[in-house]
Amino acid sequence: MHPILFQLGPLVVPSYGAVAALGVFLALALTQFTARRVALDPRHAWNMLVLAIFSALAVSRLLLIVMNLGDLRHHPSWLLAIAMVHHPLLSAVGILGGLIAALVYVRWARLPLLSVADCLAAPLAVGMAAEQLGALLAGSDFGRESQSAHAIIYTSAIAARWSGAPLYVAVYPVQAYAAIGALVVAAITFGWLFIPRSRPGDIAGIWLIATGASLFLTEFFRDWEGRGVLPSGIADTPQLVALAMVLCGGLLLLDWRPSRHAV
Question: What distance in Å separates the CA atoms of residue 58 and residue 102, rounded to the nearest whole number?
């Protein structure tokens, strides 16, 4: 594929970073609409998402720099490109950092947590779709070997160096599967905003269930190396996270109000 979008002298712009940045802008724009649908001030939605994104980037990039200090000492110019390199571990750490920052903002601004979650559901799904398309170009989160007619073959040495992509081996384009799944989730959660009787937290619950299901299924097409496989080999760590997401989503959708007919 194409891990580098373009290069001007020492300035290297990776495709993953460019596509992911486009996803961020789309998500920010969409929150301005979804916030109004759940009766939130769009300024709070914008500020919270920007804070979460910058926190996620800062935490993940600092970790990446620490992990590559030796190479950066010999090639200082790589620091310009390393800001957009993708790796599953970095994504997990970044998501955690962004989530903590968002929760801090929600508490500081005294925002209703369930409404905030509903507001972010569709924008997050759009951002995830863009992130996976970027990963497809970069060669990160690559799939298992495949004889499918839809299989792809990575030939770029940079994709192998930056993301560990296997070269000259046909693999499933699992990132494309995940991107399509995320777009379907975005469409479902966005449409749910127009259902008048939905309760706060319903959209977030649907997002958790649908995203968890998509993650669980697409993991069967990914290469599990370095993803924390269970001793029995029946699942990897992302699939356990996916099952937890489905469970949490189901709990959100339950109606916990006492029955009017209770004695």
Answer: 14
